[in-house]
Amino acid sequence: MKKTVSLALLSVIMLTTLAACGGNNTNTNTATNKPSTTDAATNKPDNGGTEEAPKVTGEVVFLTNRTDMIDKQYVDYEKRFEEKYPGVDLKFEAITDYDKTLKIRIASGDFPDVVFVPTIPNGELANYFAPLDDITFSNDIYFKDLKANEGKMYGISSGASTVGIVYNKKAFEKAGITELPKTYDEFLAASQKLKDAGIVPLASNFKDKWPLDAWVYDVTTLIGSASDHQNKRAETDTPYTLDNAYGKSWGILRELYTKGFLEADVNSTNWEQSKKDVASGKFGMYLLGNWVINQVIENGAASEDIGFFPFPADNSGEAKAPLNPDFFYAVNKKGNVDGAKAFVQWMIEESGYEDFAGFIPTLKGREPKLPQLAEFNAFNPKFFEPAAPVDAATEIQNKAQLDQAAVVQEFVLSKDPQKVFDKVNTAWAKAKKDLGL
User: Fold this and answer.
1) Residue 183 host element (H or E)
2) pLDDT for the residue numbered 7
3) Spatial contact of 142 and 23, defined as CB atoms under 8 Å apart
4) What dihedral do alpha carbons 227, 289, 61, 108 form, nearest 10°?
5) For residue 54, what pLDDT is reported?
């Protein structure tokens, strides 16, 4: 079902006086910014309580997708965490193609102590991961129920974000764009001005594929004004049609491509270079989450030159935006469970990762520090929270070996997008039938 975040609620949780977040969690902890008083990640006090705090020891390995943080921020994290837990040897391992690689390692039965939850049905979480309900946090947390099964929580979001247009203000000024677009037609007009000024309007990172997830999950939510479209695929043999949210969303990207508003050669795009190009104003915009803003700034842009506004996916003039969790921490139930839980708690409470990543904090009582979120919120967007996943849809997708971002690539470049959908729908229907769903 569609969920929206009221302006009254936003006044409590958004940056400055608002935070672009919401949730339906019911943790009864007092909402303060004071760090947890537990030494490890359980309800055991470290300062004079009657129950002795457990000693956390041994090696803890965190498998991360943030290859850019190796030998940089993670060095500081390791030092600070081991100062708090001197009996722990914390290590970081970074990989690309994270979801596919992790699934292979999980299937082998040998994977690190802390990972991000892969795309598996919630009903399978208990097969691999330890419940995390006994971790005590200083505030309630967002998205508590999204990686849960049978009343137990197996994943904790590393942060929250919304998706919109991250833009270079100097590039807009050079192109003569004096007002930010509030409709799709105005967005096309702004893109044309950027192109005419010799600026690539939108960095798609088409070849890298994963940035296209925004077109799979987020733009579809905006077009359909509902966040449960991934679940509803399980109800039909033809989830991908030209006239539903998927066809309309991917049709927008196809139009931007045909109008020359993306990179000159979308098949040779480069993620790391694109951040430099947006920072310098060679590229005008990203359609991504607020988490990319700090990465653009790190690549040479002044913070005041980077802005953020809701993507106008239609001509209604109504600002809409998704409210998303980022990757969910999970703990290998056969690994160093106590040490891993302590690390997850520390990452949420003390690491400062949410500020580095430009996230809205997982802790509800903690305000984000990213100034661009204030500009975004000035549009008064209607926020759509994620729907709890339906295992049937995930099972069908996995059975069909469906890579939706790869389908977006094929759809955009195809001379006949309908044929692309026909092929995907055939595979979907067969997988659905084979599963007896």
Assistant:
1) none
2) 31
3) yes
4) 50
5) 57
Q: What integer pLDDT is reported at residue 264 of this predicted model?
A: 96
Which residue type, as a one-letter code, is found at position 253?
L
Bridge partners of 378, per DSSP, are none
Residue whose C-alpha is closest to residue 398's, from 96, 119, 46: 119
Please report the DSSP string for 298-354 in residue order: HTT--GGGEEEE----SSS---EEE-EE-PEEEEBTTS-HHHHHHHHHHHHHTS-HH
Residue 299, Cβ neighbours under 10 Å: how many? 16
CA nearest to 324, candidates 100, 31, 23: 23
The CA distance from 148 to 152, in Å, is: 5
Q: How far is CA 229 from the centre of its chain?
A: 17
Q: What is the mean pLDDT of each run of 10 residues along the chain (437 residues)?
A: 34 33 31 34 39 75 96 98 97 94 95 96 96 96 94 96 97 98 98 98 96 97 96 98 98 98 96 97 97 96 98 98 95 98 98 92 89 93 90 95 97 98 98 97
Amino acid, res. 307: G
Helix (H, G, I), strand (E, B) or coil at 283: strand
